[in-house]
Design brief:
Length: 92
């Protein structure tokens, strides 16, 4: 694997990890927040409203958080891939 491939692979893996963390965190937050807990219809609506002031605000907040974590994960993976490739640690 050459240097560019290692950096791209690191970015992809980091992005997937960040997205997974964002989605998992969002589900946990919605499930736990609000007056009705759980992942039933009323529980989801109550959780979203508790997080973002309204259901739409909650969706926007969770989406923003997920995108931010995905971007941070992708950047971290890219930097790690570049670092490893610059140090001569290639995958054969």
């Amino acid at each position: 694997m050459n240097n560019d491939q290692m950096a791209k692979t690191g970015a992809a893996v980091g992005g997937v990890a960040g997205t997974t963390a964002g989605v998992g965190g969002g589900i946990a937050a919605v499930s736990a927040a609000g007056t009705v807990t759980g992942l039933s219809g009323p529980g989801i609506m109550a959780g979203l409203a508790a997080i973002g002031g309204s259901a739409l605000g909650g969706i926007a907040l969770i989406a923003f958080g997920t995108v931010a974590l995905a971007g941070a994960g992708a950047y971290g993976g890219f930097r790690l891939g570049k670092y490893l490739s610059e140090k001569g640690r290639t995958v054969r």
